Write a sequence for this structure.
């Protein structure tokens, strides 16, 4: 069975692109292909940088990918350590990122002592630490309660403002997509394909309140939901088995 | 208590929920918890003592606890000497089992060819009772330390292999994917992802192995040796020194308890993220 069919997606550098779609539409598969974790059976994933070298990427997974056996600091600096970056440079990056994600004072906490939301910030900081060209986020806030999710969305907006990374972000939430995205890509299921690409015109820098109170918000929400509804309905008629 | 409001208390997560019970399971039981079993044992010993004396049971058949206590005291040099021999067999055999078991477990979990070829053999090898091959080892390697260490290691090896394989295979999928995106080498993946996540399982296997190793060492000594508690047990039983047999059993169980506690301590030191500070 095809997981993805005729997916043609170009992401410009410095853009924040959000993939939405029903369960089993291959959002995660597409993200994993971009990350180089899965490979398309035909076609290709091409990523280029100005200097011709292949761009680096870093993934923030859903759930608990923070290493339980490392302190917050060591978790964040882990990718740098693996790349052989020296202690001093590593410490500088870690100090900066701990502030960026708002975990000051928790340097030496164990992950199990943190809340789910704090752990996910550690995962984001760890991904940012290796200064990737592309940041890939697979439902990073999916396991969080709503209020925590809002807080982290706001923080991600701020972080993005400062770093201007190319981001590909997968979510189920239309709210979240509208808050974060420059462009929303609506995907359909069986086989996974791209249905629509909707530009999100809200000005940057953004706040969640500004986005929510924007006159265009409701119309855009409806437009995305319109694009999704039939797919979601159709995917509910099918038996389970497409979660990943 | 820390006055900064947002720092999680050591017994809570930042969300205010109690730390999951798995972390507390590593805490040693409070000493008051030992009162009840200690009281029960004291009662049983007292009944035993009185019954033996009242019914005039001969000491070679069932010595009273007081006689066992006296044997522990009078034979302490003999017991100490032989306990040292047994302990060194247990520790060497256990060490060998850990080194070989973890290495093999790592290979089985990471190299499909090894998993296909070796793992079924490792598992079916457990149908061979080690006691049955102990005499063979004696024929091949004589009465020295080595065959005993080997028997001990053979008994301890299996739970360690199995728990290592299971622990490594249970490494979080996202964690492994993360290592791939960081272009980590196989060694880095093993060192920084698989081993740390398998350690709790490996320690569980090691606990089972440790108690099995004590049995293995004593059995090897029973089969043929000139030192060790197993040897002493054989000799004492043959001479109907029943109180000393009981004393040896007490020493063996103390060795088991001591090693178990030592392992628990090592586990606490090796897995700092699993304990509540």
């Amino acid at each position: 069975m095809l997981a993805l069919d005729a997916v043609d997606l170009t992401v410009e550098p410095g853009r924040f692109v959000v993939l939405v779609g029903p369960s089993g539409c291959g959002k995660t598969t597409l993200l994993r292909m971009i990350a180089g974790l899965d490979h398309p059976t035909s076609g290709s994933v091409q990523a280029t940088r100005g200097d011709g070298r292949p761009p680096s990427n870093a993934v923030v997974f859903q759930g608990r990918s923070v290493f339980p056996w490392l302190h917050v600091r060591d978790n964040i600096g882990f990718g740098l350590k693996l790349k052989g970056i020296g202690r001093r440079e590593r410490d500088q990056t870690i100090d900066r990122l701990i502030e960026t994600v708002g975990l000051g004072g928790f340097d030496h906490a164990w992950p199990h002592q943190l809340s789910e939301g704090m752990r996910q910030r550690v995962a984001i900081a760890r991904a940012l630490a290796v200064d990737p060209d592309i940041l890939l986020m697979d439902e990073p806030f999916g396991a969080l309660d709503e209020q925590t999710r809002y807080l982290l969305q706001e923080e991600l907006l701020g972080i993005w403002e400062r770093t201007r990374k190319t981001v590909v972000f997968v979510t189920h939430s239309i709210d979240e997509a509208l808050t974060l995205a420059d462009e929303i890509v609506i995907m359909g299921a069986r086989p996974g394909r791209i249905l629509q690409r909707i530009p999100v015109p809200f000005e940057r820098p953004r706040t969640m309140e500004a986005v929510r109170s924007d006159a265009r918000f409701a119309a855009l929400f409806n437009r995305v939901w319109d694009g999704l509804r039939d797919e979601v309905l159709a995917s509910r008629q099918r038996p389970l088995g497409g979660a990943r | 208590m820390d006055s900064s409001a947002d720092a999680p208390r050591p017994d809570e997560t930042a969300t205010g929920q109690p730390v999951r019970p798995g972390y507390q399971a590593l805490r040693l039981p409070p000493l008051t918890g030992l009162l009840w079993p200690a009281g029960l044992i004291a009662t049983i010993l007292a009944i035993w003592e009185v019954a033996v004396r009242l019914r005039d049971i001969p000491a070679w058949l069932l010595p009273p606890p007081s006689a066992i206590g006296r044997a522990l005291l009078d034979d302490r040099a003999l017991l100490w000497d032989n306990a040292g021999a047994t302990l060194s067999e247990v520790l060497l055999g256990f060490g060998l089992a850990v080194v070989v078991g973890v290495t093999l477990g790592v290979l089985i979990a990471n190299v499909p060819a090894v998993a296909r070829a070796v793992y079924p053999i490792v598992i079916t090898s457990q149908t061979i009772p080690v006691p049955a091959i102990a005499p063979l080892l004696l024929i091949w390697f004589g009465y020295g330390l080595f065959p005993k260490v080997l028997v001990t290691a053979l008994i301890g090896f299996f739970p360690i292999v199995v728990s290592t394989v299971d622990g490594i295979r249970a490494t979080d999928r996202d964690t492994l994917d993360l290592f791939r995106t960081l272009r980590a080498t196989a060694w880095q993946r093993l060192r920084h992802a698989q081993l740390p996540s398998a350690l709790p399982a490996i320690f569980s296997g090691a606990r089972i192995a440790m108690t099995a190793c004590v049995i293995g060492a004593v059995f090897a000594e029973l089969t043929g040796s000139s030192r060790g508690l197993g040897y002493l047990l054989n000799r004492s039983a043959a001479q109907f020194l029943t109180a000393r047999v009981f004393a040896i059993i007490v020493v063996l169980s103390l060795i088991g308890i001591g090693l178990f506690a030592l392992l628990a301590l090592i586990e606490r030191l090796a897995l700092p993220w699993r304990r509540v500070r």
